[in-house]
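*** Fold description ***
***
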Amino acid sequence: MVDTGFSGFLLLPILDAFPIGLILRGTIPITLADGSNQTKLTCLGKIHFDGIEEVGLIIIEWQSTDILVGMDFLRKFKRKLIVDAPKGIIKLIKSNPAPPPPSLTPAAAPANSPAPSASPPTAATPTPTTPTKP
């Protein structure tokens, strides 16, 4: 199930995680949609999807039986979720790369136009680093 409120890569129930050989990496504090905080077990894992392989942090859930795919999964696999509720259509499609930003050099602006202004930086969502095996 795709959960757009879940910023992580993948959430697996504990009963699904260990039979496939995932090894515990540690814990991570998370904030749930209701604002409560919990600490969850984590593993690093590889997912093969549509001919692509990506590594991500997998959260292990001991209270749920649902497997959740989060926003980090969609980013890493360059996918977007299209929802057309009136037609009852949900699609997971390949995302086109973002176009490069327009040039903000003074030479690109006409002589009689004001100088372009830069927009404030936006906050980035931190992603966990993937350790390498020696």
